[in-house]
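Reopening this ticket.

The earlier resolution said the output was attached, but the attachment link was broken on my side. Pasting everything inline this time so it's all in one place.
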Amino acid sequence: MTQTVRTFAPKPGSWVSVGLIYCYGVLATASLTKIIPVLGDLAANLGATPGQFALLISLMTILPAALAAVAGSIIDRMGAHRALQAVAVVGVAVNAAYLLCDSLQGFMVVRFAEGLIAVGAYSAAPGLIMATVPEMRRRRAMAVWSTYTPVGISLGLALSGTFAGTANWRGGYWVHMALFALLVATMWMLPRAPAAPPGRLQFKGLFSAWTQTGPLRLSMSFAMLIVVGFGISTVYPDWYARQQDVPVGQASNILAGANLIMIPGGFVAGALLARGWRDSRLLTLLVLATMATSLPLFVPGLSDVMRQGTMVLWMLLQGAMIAVVTSALPRVVADPRQGAAAAGLLSQLAALVTFVTPLIWQPLLQTALVQPAAWTGFIVVVVLGAAAAWTVFPRR
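Inline output:
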């Protein structure tokens, strides 16, 4: 019976199989951003203060910041498909818990536990892609995988932005729970990765990814891109709403739609890499363009058309940069069967900076809303973050 069911599953390494794995990254990222549009509702209904907003955003990153690389080493042994199946179940459970929370403290505890989704998905999903996709298609598949970030950010903002400011402000959590339930229903279709090298996993092996220069430098480069990209996502709805005189919910939906522009950016970068472009050269061009685009993105006084046009260009560049860095992961991993450890390290450093990022950007936003001339602080962070990502990126 089991064999009969498996015959209906997509072929391991096929684009359908990659697409199913991709959904785990999307829903995990939506978990991170869905809280942003309802921060005002948390203040009105559960008593959250403006000083707690950055903490509420960052709480989900604590577990991946502490455990992701170690979890990746364990996932390489236990099987990435099993880890993703657990992610789907946890996703249903935490969203159900959010719906039952009637205190801010309870909400924070669930937000902390939600980090288990990121621990599993961000290590197991790319590890499963690298282990099951043929080598000739692996870098392009990883470029496709990289677009889970904008899709997930947009989904999270749209889920909650649709219900923000209404009596049914938790409606996004209902929808998110239903989406995870769909993954539970289809998790039997996940491909099985080849077995990891035999032998007992030693304690020092749990931290093996930290000792490999290539994965470590690549993870640091990705982390710097998170400081820039995620940081802007945390402040831009408020900044855009103030500059263009629109509600924050509407600004969140505009940003959610603009984030989807990162997808073609990632696809274009993947196509260029497949045609023989060197990733370091392409990243150099993208970093310079990102620095230049950050100025009109934040400058006060722009028309709505100009600001949205700049936002589209910015998202194209962000999608391409993330794709270039992520698609280099198979190049720096010694054994594709142990890709979850390297992916876990990338996730861990990303989570560490994700925790810190709102603490950097939110004070800048609060200052800029009071002192308009302080908007230049946004540009400084963008330039420093993009330059750092370029500097540490591992060359061939």
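Reporter confirms the inline version is readable. The mean pLDDT is 85. The domain at 9-194+202-391 is CATH 1.20.1250.20 (Growth Hormone; Chain: A;).
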